[in-house]
Every structure is written in structure tokens, then in C-alpha cells.
Write a structure and sequence with these properties.
By secondary structure, the chain is of the alpha/beta class. Helices cover 46% and strands 13% of the residues. The chain has 9 helices and 6 strands, in the order ααββααβαβααββαα. The chain has a 6-stranded mixed β-sheet, with helices on both faces. The protein binds uracil. One of its GO terms (molecular function) is uracil DNA N-glycosylase activity.
Length: 188
């Protein structure tokens, strides 16, 4: 018997009281994720940064502003997609997520993904790509190529924060979002 889908509000309540890893000690807010609960496209980032921790919302800083521009290149707006992260709490000093934190936190992402059931998951950067695709291959080789994870089509791209100050990554990221827009139009 397949497991029933857990309503997003119920998952959020579990995350709000989560103490599965030490990141709960330093958080101001959890960053559950937000957007259209019936989105065709789910965007998965890495972890909240300082601004996200303060506001409890994903991608509200400089990388978020750039993400909005990228979404527009695929003819998408924030309200069309659901944006979540691998980790729901901010790692101190924005360091990389640790394997034990990813293990503790990702059951929530898995539940979110099952409930939203998007057609496409766009993974931003190495951490989310590695988690969703269960691969050790890096984003440099995987970006812009459609892959499959169970019933989901997965489209890995560079993380917008990594591309902000790197012209060649920025070019690749913008081309990849234009490709995403074409893929979505083809499958509409
Ligand atoms: N970077 C991420 O990966 N996620 C956020 O929410 C913000 C910045």
C-alpha cells in the first residue's frame, strides 16, 4: 500500500518543533518553503542563509532576487512554483550542510515532494542535486540535462549564489532556465 500524502501544514508543524539535529539550537525561524502547493515545478535549494533565517522564507536575499529573474526566463513567477531547501534550518556562518544534518532533515523534503508531486524538480547546486539524484557526479557535469528520480523529472542547474559572481556559470544558468521554459511549454 502506498503511504498517504501528508498535508503540507502537517509537515510544517513537524518541522517547527524539530530537534533532530543541533541546527535547531541556532535558528531564528525554520524555513519550510513556500509557493504553489500544486506546482508543476519544485525548486530545491541548499539551506537558509542569514536573511532567510531571520524572515522564515526561502531565497529572500541577493540569490533570491536573481532566482526571480531566472524564473522569469522560464516564464515562471514565484507564485507558480514551490521553493524548498535540503535543510530547513540555517547552518552557522552559512557553512556547507553536514551529512548527518542532511540525513536528519531530508525526510521532510521527501514528504514535501510526495505531497506537492511536481512534474519537474529543479535542483540548485551540488547538495540538492546529489540528494535528489542519489549521485556523486558534480553539478558541472549534470547541469542543464534532464534526469529522472523515480516518477520525477529532475533538472539540475548551478546554484544562483554560485553564479552571481561567476560570468560563465551565470551564462550557463540563464541558458538552462531558458531550456526549462521550453521543456515546460512542450509538456504543457
Ligand atoms: N540559498 C539557498 O540554497 N536557499 C535559500 O533559501 C537561500 C539561499
Amino acid at each position: 500500500m502506498p503511504k498517504p500524502h501528508i498535508p503540507l501544514e502537517e509537515i510544517r508543524t513537524s518541522v517547527e518543533s524539530c530537534r533532530r539535529c543541533p541546527l535547531c539550537e541556532g535558528r531564528t525561524h525554520i524555513v519550510f518553503g513556500e509557493g504553489n502547493p500544486e506546482a508543476r515545478v519544485m525548486i530545491v535549494g541548499e539551506a537558509p542563509g542569514k536573511n532567510e533565517d531571520l524572515q522564515g522564507r526561502p531565497f529572500v536575499g541577493a540569490a533570491g532576487k536573481y532566482l526571480d529573474e531566472l524564473l522569469a526566463m522560464a516564464e515562471l513567477a514565484r507564485e507558480d512554483v514551490f521553493i524548498a531547501n535540503v535543510l530547513k534550518c540555517r547552518p552557522p556562518g552559512n557553512r556547507d550542510p553536514r551529512p548527518e544534518e542532511i540525513e536528519a532533515c531530508t525526510p521532510y523534503l521527501r514528504e514535501q515532494t510526495r505531497t506537492i508531486s511536481p512534474d519537474f524538480i529543479v535542483t540548485l547546486g551540488n547538495f540538492s542535486t546529489k540528494f535528489i539524484l542519489k549521485t556523486d557526479v558534480g553539478i558541472t557535469r549534470l547541469h542543464g540535462k534532464l534526469a529522472q528520480a523515480g516518477k520525477f523529472q529532475v533538472f539540475p542547474v548551478y546554484h544562483p549564489a554560485a553564479a552571481l559572481y561567476d560570468r560563465s556559470k551565470r551564462t550557463a544558468l540563464e541558458e538552462d532556465f531558458a531550456t526549462l521554459g521550453r521543456l515546460l511549454a512542450e509538456e504543457a
